Protein: diguanylate cyclase
Amino acid sequence: MTDASNDIVDFHWMLEILQTIDIGLIVIDNEYNITTWNAFMENHSGRAASSVKNQPLFEVFPELPEAWFRQKADTVRLLSIRTFTTWEQRPYLVRFRNYHPITSTAEFMYQNSMLYPIVDTKNQVTHIAVVIFDVTDIATSKLALQEANGELERLTRTDGLSQLFNRSYLEESIHRELQRSRRHNHPASLIMLDVDFFKHVNDTYGHVAGDDVIRFIGRQLRLNLRETDTAGRYGGEEFAVVLPETSANDAKVFAERLRLIMEDSTMKHEDTEFKITISLGIAELTDTMSTEQDWISSADHALYESKHNGRNQTTIFKTK
Structure:
């Protein structure tokens, strides 16, 4: 018996096995008509083999991307090799409902798939076997782990009270923006802001009221930031905002909008109402600021000027 004949015999044995195990099998001819459809496919599609036999694959599964699948099949046919697709490349080859709803939250069956050439006695590819593996449990477990790791990463860089970035991540962002701005020769501004008389708030209304102030500022910053901006709690009642592609004058527009929001707002704690204001300092990145600490110090100096000149105002750092 020739090697090709042995391959055919071996493959027919495989077909017998695949009829009974929990793996999907479709065999198509070179015109993409279905010739074999195993019990797995019947159970999950709800269609008997007799109803799909000799039907075009793309009519049975109109959601299957035809151009993509034909390219995969052409590779199998021309090179007589197997090709694989994992759920991470494409969640599924054909959409089936997940039949383990108790143990998995997935709405559909995640699948790995393989296209396998079937050759005749002349070693010509006459059919392609499409094998489908249900990997829903593996996929959902990995996705859940990725989500948990992502949440852990978010928590390690987030300030719990303000829900802004913490100081460590904020300093990394300032460093990255300094490098990016230098590389592309684009403007960037840094705002440092501070709650006026914050000690008085804590001493008069209590630390719970002070925490409410921090949360309120964090919320207003998140509402007013662009997607490209980064805001964080630098420490205590001090915050920083990194504004890429922004001159000092444009940064002042943002700063004044935020300052007026604070000025016009009334804080409530239990049965007491009180007002807060903020002071802000802006530093546009210049050639004289060689490190992120130089940049932070410049913005801090401008913030000090706002405090020194009466608070509740915005000051732009001026190089001497």
Remarks:
- The longest strand covers residues 125-134.
- The domain at 157-316 is CATH 3.30.70.270 (Alpha-Beta Plaits).
